[in-house]
């Protein structure tokens, strides 16, 4: 069990009576390592301790065990099931264990790409209700805070459809035109010629993901703030990679 203290300390014990601590100069550095530890242990980075040190009754512990043994069953990915999928995604957000399981199920079944195919169908059919459900679903999947899912969602193949889904916020009278902005208005200015296609792709991806975080996603509530920590890390590591490639 790791414990975060005073924003810049991570402490833990190895063997009996052998305590270790990592001390950070900056809170940001501490948060970044804490996120990694929490990610490996399947915890929400908002926790102060990664494993429960408090005594929980034996009964509660056994109640949780069967749940961890199987994945969440996803509804078939089809138009008639969008409402059910949206309900499922939003219902797991309050439980770290269920979020972890949903993320695994989405990953194992290549579900995100299937959802984005449904998005294209809904747009062609002008199915507003379906598009509103897809907004909830994609936003909920972002809040699962999983780097492996981000790799899929932010790939060249998928990112514009993800942005498309996020245009259809049910709270808005008219959908936003984010794709139009990203493809037509935003211009890529090369201060130096960039010939490496992988580097160019990374720059485009980072700009778009940053746009999703800063412009598209509503300001998160206190409840949601921690759900986007991996998104912040994703952008940060992309920037590190871009600088390394330039060097």
UniProtKB/TrEMBL annotation:
InterPro entries: EVH1_PP4R3, P4R3-like_central_dom, PH-like_dom_sf, PP4R3-like. Residues 84-247 form the Serine/threonine-protein phosphatase 4 regulatory subunit 3-like central domain. GO terms for molecular function: protein phosphatase activator activity. GO terms for biological process: DNA damage response. GO terms for cellular component: nucleoplasm; protein phosphatase 4 complex. It comes from the Eukaryota. Residues 2-42 form the PP4R3 EVH1-like domain. Belongs to the SMEK family. This is Serine/threonine-protein phosphatase 4 regulatory subunit 3B.
């Amino acid at each position: 069990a790791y414990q975060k203290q005073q924003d810049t300390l991570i402490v833990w014990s190895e063997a009996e009576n052998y305590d270790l601590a990592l001390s950070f100069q900056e809170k940001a550095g501490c948060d970044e390592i804490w996120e990694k530890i929490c990610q490996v242990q399947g915890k929400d980075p908002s926790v102060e301790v990664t494993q429960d040190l408090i005594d929980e009754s034996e009964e509660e512990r056994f109640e949780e065990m069967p749940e961890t043994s199987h994945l969440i069953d996803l509804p078939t990915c089809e138009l008639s099931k969008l409402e059910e999928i949206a309900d499922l995604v939003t219902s797991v957000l309050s439980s770290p264990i269920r979020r972890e399981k949903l993320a695994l199920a989405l990953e194992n079944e290549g579900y995100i790409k299937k959802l984005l195919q449904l998005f294209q169908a809904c747009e062609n059919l002008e199915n507003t209700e379906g598009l509103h459900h897809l907004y909830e679903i994609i936003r909920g999947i972002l809040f699962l805070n999983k780097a492996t899912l981000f790799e899929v969602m932010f790939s060249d193949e998928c990112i514009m459809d993800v942005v498309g889904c996020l245009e259809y916020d049910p709270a808005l009278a008219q959908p936003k035109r984010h794709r139009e902005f990203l493809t037509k208005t935003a211009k890529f200015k090369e201060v130096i010629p960039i010939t490496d296609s992988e580097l160019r792709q990374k720059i485009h991806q980072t700009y778009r993901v940053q746009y999703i975080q800063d412009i598209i996603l509503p300001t998160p509530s206190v409840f949601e703030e921690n759900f986007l920590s991996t998104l912040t890390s994703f952008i940060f590591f992309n920037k590190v990679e871009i600088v390394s490639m330039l060097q």
